[in-house]
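Justification of resources, computational component.

The compute hours requested in this renewal are based largely on the per-chain cost of generating structure records like the one below. Each record pairs the submitted sequence with a full structure-token output. That output is archived, and it is also reused by downstream analysis tasks.
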Amino acid sequence: MSTKCPACARDNLTVIGLSQHLAKSRDPRCHALYQQSHTRVNVDEPFDEPCNKSEVPEGPHVNMYKEEMQDFEDEVLQSFAEHDGNGEHDGNSSDEEDGREELEWEPPVQEDEGWAGVEVDDPMDHNNSSIDRETRHQIERQIADHNRVIESYPDRRAGQPIAQAEIRNVNATYASSIDNLNAENPYAPFTSQMDWEVAQWAKLRGPSSTAFSDLLSIDGVSERLGLSYKNARELNSIIDTQLPGRPRFRREQVVVAGEAFDIFYRDILECIKDLYGNPDFADFLVFAPERHYTDTDKTVRYFGDMHTGKWWWSTQKKLDKQRPGATIIPVIISTDKTQVTVFRNKTAYPVYLTIGNIPKEIRQKPSRRAQILLGYLPTTHLEHITNKASHRRSAANLYHACMSRILSPLEKAGLDGLVMQSGDGVSRHCHPLFACFVGDYPEQLLATGIKTTECPKCDIPPDELESSTTPFEIRDFNAVLEALATIDVGALEFVQACREAGIKPIVHPFWEKLPYVNIFQAVTPDVLHQLYQGLVKHLLNWLAEACGSAEIDARLYDKGIDRQTTLVRSPKATTLTSLWY
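The structure output for this chain reads:
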């Protein structure tokens, strides 16, 4: 569908192209029309019927935006101007520019003037009073403005440092441990600034190790630059032996069903100490739980980072009964079996670790290195087991045996605690506790021991998953532990007890002996598959099919979703409903 500019009579413009033509053209007539179109149009009568979609309305299309939509349009058009350089365009722009502009996204233009300035009512709000809606909007504004009321944990000893004779940060401690460090060479163990910068370039910005070695093998390069290494192997040796780094991997074997499997992993306590003691995170660490509210009456709870949730607060209370003044380190474990080759079906099974004391804004950025590769699980297909039921049980037991080997140090450290030093040199009595498990649905079933098609968190029947009225409860963790304890009674009794508890007969799951753990509460939602693809995307597609994209766009604009700048926007979106697909 094409239309004509009402000001300069330029033809063959799309709806999006017309709007951008008015905004970018230097023709005075188009500029005046663009300024006039940004005056809000008030419509007193409600909109009853949409016009025929095949008809093209007359007048400036941008008149159809509401005032809230205009702010967003200005922001989008400004970004286009910045992208194009100084933002200035000739009145007779080239066809190439027009083609590029029409491909760029802009808020869709409604095709009927009756939409201009209309307040679209939400059917869900018909039963609510205007006061309730105003209260909701006020709460939303308070959340956006971060005007929150914070309630600290009542016991001030929680998360407090312990007495120290001397406080030295990690950098100072490391500097004192280097034998050849002196005031003239702050780049030790490298010999000079040039030596250090070349090494940094080779590892962070440079070519492959072979190419770097070939470069240094050129006669005189290493000597003229004054380097302490002559190839990539010597540089790697300096980094591995003389610089602080992540804990080393160890290799062990786990025997399941009479077969030995290799497992590679790091010491989990050393990994936790590495994250907790990183000087880059020292200013951001959280040591005690809090409750955040959006109002002074403390009636509306706000859940943001991990320390604002319920788990940390309730677990701190339990721990204070045994260890007053303890500092909880929430351990977050994530797993995801990954295909690493296109052919021959080669896979890897990495396990990652992070801690909840680090704010999520830092944890979610790979560049901050707040996640540690904790280990690799076996990826065997157990071809020697032909029975399908035995194959499934053996695969589950292998997974839990390996995870138990990796997480076993948390059992004693979680109960007794250990003194750990943060990056600023302050020591606290810390208790690393398994808090969250992150994975997709198959990983959740494998970790919890729940059967396929069932919910890994609650006891709702599989055929009632679509119901919104069926009552449900979080799975009884104590009943599951009692069923697992029957393994010493006999095999038949163990299988029967596990079936009654609603789990698979797994021999000693990795979470069985970990303190203060409820695996059914530790499982977190799979945002991509369960929330986005399983709920949001399906719901938006269904609504767009049932009501039309124009109707949904108008309601989303009315709710201000176009101003949610934290959402990821699709560059190929043509409607607001597909903007964040």
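The chain has 21 helices and twelve strands. The longest helix spans residues 527-547.
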